[in-house]
Amino acid sequence: MAAKVKHHVRDLRLAADGLRRIEWAEQDMPVLRAIRERFSREKPLKGVRLSGCLHVTTETANLMRTLKAGGAEMRLCASNPLSTQDDVAAALVKEFGISTFSIKGEDRKTYYAHIDAALDFRPNITMDDGADLVSRIHGDRRDLAPGVWGGTEETTTGVIRLRALAEEGKLLFPVVAVNDAGTKHLFDNRYGTGQSTVDGIIRATNRLFAGRTVVTAGYGWCGRGFAMRARGMGAQVIVTEIDHLKALEAVMDGFQVMPMARAARIGDIFCTLTGDINVLRAEHFKVMKDGAVVANSGHFNVEIDIPGLAKAAKKIRRGIRPFVDEYTMRSGNRVYLLADGRLINLASAEGHPACVMDMSFAVQALSAELVAKNAPRGKMTRRVYDVPAEIDKFVAALKLKSMGVGIDRLTAEQKKYLASWEMGT
Question: In 233-353, which ranges are continuous DSSP H helix?
Fold first, then answer.
């Protein structure tokens, strides 16, 4: 099978290991499994060419299996140079016949070559985690745009980029903001990012969180999750924010809130989760404690000013541990940068647990079906769409059912009361 499938992965001999891990993740993805069973019967994506730019993990593999079961023809590339699980990439090619272009640690040139390889497929639907496919199409590959019916976007950073395009009237096709679905950001971003980021930092450093001061830059859903989990590990947590409401929420949640200029002097572990550029800069590195650890769990490696860190350092030692570089400041204090500022939860750990990706990828699969059914018929315009409420509710209901959880239903009397204005006190 692999000989007939176009691919560029590290080693196809890793496929057996990848298959075992894909099957392990599938056990904790009952919602996606139920959707795959329906897709196998109905083939809602039959004949659709779909290109995905996603983190190539065990959970993503199960999404790819679902889309293929629905009839889609696919190509997959990585949405981050360090997030690929090489055994999973091999299994996608060898065991499932899915064209995959992804190698952990690939350089920038290879990363964009892989994106182009996915786009050479001339997709009808794009599936992004960070909007790299969409950005490429809107840049050097505009010839592909007429054939694209629409796309889906997985993460906050990508949705920000897409809304900026739409506001300028430059978005060339409709895109569904999967990230903004309740069953995605309320669970994946908060609980998934929270746990997996702590996991990544610990695997890279073997540092104890208990008793340490952990600085969380940003109090969006990812920041909330990380701050919650860090506190649960016994850390003293500081939050930095630029939004008054989020800062107030962090205070009410029991965290210290202060500017980064102050937090930089007292933090032991720093993690950026903002989606913005240069959140940690040279003036912060220069005043950090000896041994401070700096990591990022935002999508792109721009949140930490790495050139500024290098310029402020008098000495740099690479790879003192896997995914750990040591920068010695002119004061003699050492700052440790994790995973070259890339997503620490995927670089040194395995990303989000399968049970939360089950909901996120269920929404992805159903959103791809939505685009396939509506966009070619002119029922979607060139804008960013929210995930329909019925999809969100359907996924939540399936997840609760899989967990053996039941909920109440409104009585006829209650429905009447909520729909009326006459009844008061």
Answer: 244-252, 260-266, 282-285, 306-312, 344-347
Helical (H) or strand (E) element with 113: helix 108-119
Same fold, 2-184+351-402 and 193-347: yes
- How far the first Cα of the chain sits from its last, in Å, is 70
Token readout for 353 is 């647990």
Over residues 183-233, the pLDDT tens digits come to 999 999 999 999 999 999 999 999 999 999 999 999 999 999 999 999 999
φ and ψ at residue 328, rounded to 5 degrees:
-95, 120
- Which strand ranges, in their side-by-side order, compose the sheet holding 269-272? 256-257, 236-240, 213-217, 269-272, 292-296, 334-338, 324-329, 313-321
Exposure b/e, 106-116, CB count within 10 A at least 16 = b = beeebbeebbe
Distance CA 110, CA 275 (A): 24
CB-based burial label for 217 (10 Å; 0-12, 13-18, 19+): buried
Nearest partner of 78 among 266, 293, 346, 329, judged by Cα? 346
For domain 193-347, the CATH superfamily is: NAD(P)-binding Rossmann-like Domain (3.40.50.720)
Question: Is the domain covering 2-184+351-402 a CATH 3.40.50.1480 domain?
Answer: yes
Q: Determine the Cα–Cα distance for residues 367 and 179; give it in Å rounded to an integer.
A: 11
| Cβ contact 158:299 at 8 Å | yes
Residue 299 is predicted with a pLDDT of 87
The reported pTM is 0.93
Q: How confident is the model at residue 422 (pLDDT cuts 50, 70, 90)?
A: confident
DSSP 42-96: H-TTTT-EEEEEE--SHHHHHHHHHHHHTT-EEEEEESSTT---HHHHHHHHHTT
Work out the number of other CB atoms within 10 angstroms of the CB of residue 382.
14
pLDDT digits (tens, 9 = 90+) for 145-196: 999 999 999 999 899 999 999 999 999 999 999 999 999 999 999 999 999 9
The span from the CA of 135 to the CA of 65, in Å, is 26
The three-state secondary structure class of 321 is strand
Exposed / middle / buried, residue 64 (Cβ in 10 Å: 0-12, 13-18, 19+)? buried
